[in-house]
Write a structure and sequence with these properties.
about 160 residues, alpha+beta, about 30% helix
Length: about 160
């Protein structure tokens, strides 16, 4: 059984509903969802003027190989309503494969570990909650260390939904 670490996020529409739907679809189509982080809110990365993102880390056990996993999560994105228009643009849902076991994969369509994860608090903070001791197979540092060394100025804060009155 393979362990995959995913980061899901989105900033359009029913953000919490879309993330919940993504976790459900991952559980039905990818494998057993082992751990899920809390939701974290952060400003859009890449200097784009757009709504804040919600992000969540997910650990899943799967029998899929990495490329099949990628194609499956892209199909889940499409089902939930993702339309790819611009890099770092606003989106209903985004599902990134961050780690796949301790493998290093360098294909045109798939790079594992995710090449930018160590630079982004919105990735590291949810991952620290579910896999703090996971070793980055290229940098040979755990998630706790990567977060301590991260210089990303955009904080990721635990999301507390407003009470409905």
């Amino acid at each position: 059984m393979n362990k995959a670490i995913l980061l899901i996020g989105g900033n359009l529409g029913d953000r919490t509903g879309h993330l919940k739907q993504a976790v459900e679809q991952i559980g039905m189509l990818v494998g057993k969802v082992e751990k899920v982080s809390a939701l974290y809110e952060t400003a859009a990365w890449g200097g784009m003027e757009q709504p804040d993102y919600l992000n969540q880390g997910v650990m899943v056990s799967t029998e899929m190989d990495a490329l099949t996993l990628l194609h499956t999560v892209l199909e889940i994105e499409r089902k939930i309503g993702r339309i790819r228009q611009q890099k770092w643009g606003a989106r209903v849902i985004d599902i990134d494969v961050i780690f796949y076991n301790d493998e290093i994969i360098n294909l045109p369509e798939l790079k594992i570990p995710h090449p930018q994860l160590q630079f982004r608090q919105f990735v590291l903070i949810p991952l620290q909650e579910i896999i703090p001791d996971w070793q980055h197979p290229v940098l040979h540092k755990d998630i706790n260390t990567l977060l301590q060394q991260c210089t990303d100025p955009l904080p990721a804060k635990k999301y507390i939904p407003e009470e409905v009155h």
